[in-house]
Design goal:
This protein is of the alpha+beta class. The chain has a single domain (8-212), classed as L-fuculose-1-phosphate Aldolase. The protein contains 6 helices and 7 strands, in the order H-E-E-E-H-E-H-E-H-E-E-H-H. It has a 7-stranded mixed beta sheet with strand order 3-2-1-4-7-6-5, with helices on both faces. Helix 1 (8-24) packs parallel to helix 5, helix 2 (79-88) crosses helix 4 (139-148) and helix 3 (101-108) packs across helix 5 (169-192). The longest helix is centred in the last third of the chain and has 24 residues, at 169-192. The protein starts with 7 loop residues before the first helix and ends in an 11-residue tail after the last helix.
């Protein structure tokens, strides 16, 4: 029997749960970040400036891919980044943006995270790029982000934070935690010296290996 797609209220509650989990896992503070999930012809996203522990499903804003919304609350000021990911990356089911400590610190240095560790491949390539800076909430910021996300599922945002996307909310949260963990590891490695960077050929091997990473036989799922 084919399972029924989650309702708007159910997905909205999942967005709230993901926001609370994001803060509990230490990759965001207060209401600084934002999370969204693809829904119908648009996406559901956290509202602007509301504390996550006060959110109810009716507070989550539905935004169309043309940027319009019929809801009473304003969406997150970063809705353009979310909209542009959904519009340009068909595989994106959920988006997470956070001001996590180590990813933000590296973004303030405008540093990419190179292949110091093979787990960089979780972002989809040989590095995690840092996008150029632009004022928050602007189309310029979103345009810079799309360049940094080319062939990737995650990037740093210059002097801002990080953003990532995945198939669903659970995977987007997992990826956000992984990106912050890698940023922290890279930061500490740099304090001790110059990390050894894996070669493009070595990372290509990792990316091939990652095609089956975390997958189990259907019967075991």
């Amino acid at each position: 029997m084919q399972s029924r797609a989650p309702s708007r209220a159910q997905l909205s509650q999942q967005v709230i749960d993901s926001c609370l989990a994001m803060n509990a896992r230490g990759i965001n503070q207060g209401s600084a970040g934002n999370i969204s999930v693809r829904f119908e012809n648009g996406f559901l996203i956290t509202p602007s400036g509301m504390a996550y522990d006060r959110l109810q499903p009716e507070h989550i804003v539905l935004v169309d891919l043309d940027g319009s919304s019929q809801d009473n609350l304003n969406p997150s000021s970063e809705w353009r980044m979310h909209r542009d990911i959904y519009a340009n990356r068909a595989e994106a089911g959920a988006v997470l943006h956070a001001h996590s400590t180590f990813a933000t610190a590296l973004s303030c240095l405008r540093n990419d995270i190179p292949a110091f560790h093979y787990m960089i491949a979780v972002a989809g390539g040989h590095s995690i790029r840092c996008a150029d800076y632009a004022l928050f909430g602007t189309q310029a910021l979103s345009d810079h982000m799309l360049v940094a996300l080319d062939g990737r599922r995650a990037c740093l945002l210059g002097t801002h934070g990080m953003i990532c996307f995945h198939d669903n909310l659970d995977k987007a949260l997992w990826l956000g935690v992984e990106i912050e963990t890698l940023a922290k590891q890279y930061w500490h490695a740099c304090q001790a010296g110059d990390p050894v960077i894996l070669s493009p050929a070595q990372m290509d091997e990792v990316l091939v290996q990652f095609q089956g990473y975390g997958k189990q036989p259907t019967a075991a799922q």
